[in-house]
Write a structure and sequence with these properties.
The mean pLDDT is about 90. The protein has four helices and ten strands; from the N terminus they run βαβββαβββαββαβ. The protein is α+β, with helices and mostly antiparallel strands. The relative contact order is 0.22.
Length: about 170
């Protein structure tokens, strides 16, 4: 089983409800198991700042899927929840964004997939929730919490936990 880190984000619709359903889909469609889930965080928009704030979170799963199959599965889940990669604005609003951050210690550079995620260490909105669940994880020779300490976390707020669904 591979240990995989995935970032979740969105700013259209009931994002937190989408996360709950998307995580269930991720585990089911990847034949994976959820190892850890961060809190949800309200974060300022990245890139295109003329849009509502985002909600971001991270999960760790274990799966037997290879990285390319896993990425294709994540894209199917995004589409299921209303994301249209072909017609959206770059860094614009979206109901669900799933980023494959790290897959074990695999390093890969292909047109369709780069591991670890090439902008992982530039984004506090990813590192804050990631540091909650994997502060000591070493990715590409760098410790998550050490990389987070180098970035500003201004505007990132932990959201209160939601009640468990009945």
């Amino acid at each position: 089983m591979a240990s995989v880190l995935i970032a979740l984000g969105g700013n259209v619709g009931d994002v937190r409800a989408t996360f709950r359903k998307a995580i269930a889909n991720i585990c089911g469609m990847t034949q994976g198991s959820l190892v850890a889930r961060s809190s949800d965080y309200a974060t300022p928009p990245w890139g295109d700042k003329q849009q509502p704030p985002f909600v971001n979170a991270c999960i760790e799963i274990e799966t037997r899927l290879d990285p390319h199959t896993l990425l294709a599965t994540l894209h199917k889940i995004e589409k299921k929840f209303g994301r249209d990669r072909a017609h959206e604005r770059h860094w614009g609003p979206r109901p669900l964004d799933l980023d494959l951050l790290a897959y074990d210690d695999v390093r890969l550079t292909r047109r369709e997939l780069t591991l670890p995620h090439p902008r992982l260490f530039e984004r506090a909105f990813v590192l804050v929730p990631l540091a909650e669940i994997a502060p000591d994880r070493i990715i590409a020779g760098r410790r998550v919490r050490d990389e987070l300490a180098k970035l500003s976390t201004d505007g990132i707020e932990r959201l209160p936990d939601l009640p468990d669904p009945a």
